[in-house]
Amino acid sequence: MLGCYVMFILVAIATGDCPKDCMCPNPEQVTCVGSGLSTLPSGFNSMEITTLDMSENDLTLITIESLTPVREVVNLKFKLNDIGTIEDGSFHVTPNLQVSYLNFSFSSCGI
Predict the structure, then answer these.
(1) Which 8-state DSSP code applies to residue 4?
(2) Sign of the CA dihedral running 101, 35, 83, 48
(3) How far is CA 9 from the centre of its chain?
(4) What letters, b where the CB count within 10 A reaches 16 and e where it falls short, cover 4-37?
(5) Is residue 67 domain-resident?
(6) Which domain holds residue 35?
(7) Shortest CA distance to 70 belongs to which of 94, 89, 92, 90?
(8) How many domains does the chain have?
């Protein structure tokens, strides 16, 4: 019975700051795959996110403001969205970014 309580507490801690419609297997990883989101979620609070997966959503725009809450991100995935605009300088707020997946995410950018 004690094991159940410990597991409940650990799940509550791991998901406490997790944005709505997303899963957070640990405090550094946020997965919002296929959630129907048209913007990056809010509610990252004090999370130090290194991996953010926004694949298979309805994103059309990436802005400086939308990436500022995840400035520590290293791995960013935007696969299978409908991104038409990336604001100039958006990725300057993510200096640690090493990998960005944008596969099949552009609508009318000529890419």
Answers:
(1) H
(2) negative
(3) 24
(4) eeeeeeeeeeeeeebbeebebeebbbbbbeebeb
(5) yes
(6) 2-101
(7) 94
(8) 1
Mind listing the pLDDT tens digit for each residue in 32-65? 999 999 999 887 766 789 999 999 999 999 999 9
Predicted local distance difference test score (pLDDT) of residue 108: 53
Say how many C-beta atoms besides its own lie within 10 A of residue 91's C-beta.
16
Please say whether the beta carbons of 50 and 73 come within 8 A: yes
Task: Name the β-bridge partners of 76.
Answer: 52, 100
* Number of C-beta neighbours around residue 47 at 10 A: 21
What is the C-alpha separation between 79 and 71, in angstroms, rounded? 19
CATH number, domain with residue 29: 3.80.10.10
Domain assignment of residue 106, yes or no: no
